[in-house]
């Protein structure tokens, strides 16, 4: 019963730069405008090098999400590594890991080698210009932890900028502020596939 109570407590605690975002941000022949405040925020967090408080919590969350994710990442080792890294980077940024998974589902279908037609890379579809803006040209955006750190940091920045309004933050992440299409899709995937019930 104590474990059940702790599980309930954990589930209460748990609750984007996209392919389309990159299209909106990068016009042929001209670099996208860079938000100086976001650049500083990324520089601070991208340089930082786990997130579960308790082994039981880790096992419950990882088992639940691993079962849900099996159709997308059939290799168990790859799947668990992916989930641990998503959880760590999401929690580090103050985001709900299950929502970040939904965003990744929409962005790349969990393909860490995903490359959009305009050059956005990895599971969270990060534009390469960020590496140069941060003075970190050596960063590999195909590397899962690097990609997650960039993506979670950017989403958290927009969430703070929008005073906790996740729909507006997702629209900013996608470069489509003013349109509900992208936030609606992420929320649909979140509630249909990944939402952790309180």
Radius of gyration: 16 Å
Q: How would you classify the helix and strand content by structural class?
A: mainly alpha
Averaged pLDDT? 81
Determine the CATH topology.
Answer: Lysozyme
- Gross morphology is globular
Gap between N and C termini: 17 Å
Total tally of structural domains: 1
Total strand count, please? Answer: 0
Main sheet? none
Distinctive features:
198 residues; mainly alpha; Lysozyme; 0% strand; globular; disordered N terminus
Report what the structure shows:
The structure is a single chain. Helix 8 crosses helix 9 and helix 9 packs across helix 10. The protein is mostly helical. The longest helix has 18 residues. It has a single domain, classed as Lysozyme, CATH 1.10.530. The chain is globular and about 45 Å long. Belongs to the transglycosylase Slt family.
SSE blueprint and pairings:
Blueprint: H1 2-13, H2 19-25, H3 36-46, H4 55-69, H5 76-93, H6 97-108, H7 129-133, H8 144-161, H9 166-174, H10 181-194
Helix pairs in contact: 3-8, 4-5, 5-6, 5-8, 6-10, 8-9, 9-10
Give a summary of the structure in a few sentences.
Helices cover 61% and strands 0% of the residues. The protein is built from ten helices and no strands.
């Amino acid at each position: 019963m104590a474990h059940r109570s702790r599980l309930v407590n954990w589930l209460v605690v748990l609750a984007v730069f996209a392919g389309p975002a990159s299209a909106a941000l990068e016009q042929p022949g001209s670099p996208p405008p860079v938000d100086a405040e976001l650049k500083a925020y990324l520089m601070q967090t991208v340089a930082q090098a786990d997130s579960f408080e308790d082994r039981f919590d880790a096992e419950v969350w990882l088992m639940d999400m691993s079962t849900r994710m099996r159709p997308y990442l059939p290799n168990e080792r790859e799947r668990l590594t992916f989930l641990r890294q998503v959880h760590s980077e999401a929690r580090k940024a103050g985001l709900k890991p299950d929502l970040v998974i939904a965003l990744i589902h929409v962005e790349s279908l969990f393909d860490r080698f995903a490359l959009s037609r305009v050059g956005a890379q990895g599971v969270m579809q990060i534009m390469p210009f960020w590496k140069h803006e941060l003075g970190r040209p050596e960063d590999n955006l195909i590397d899962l932890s690097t990609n997650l750190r960039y993506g979670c940091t950017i989403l958290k920045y927009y969430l703070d900028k929008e005073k906790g309004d996740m729909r507006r933050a997702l629209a900013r992440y996608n470069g489509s502020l003013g349109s509900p299409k992208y936030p609606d899709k992420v929320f649909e995937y979140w509630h249909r596939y990944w939402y952790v019930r309180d």
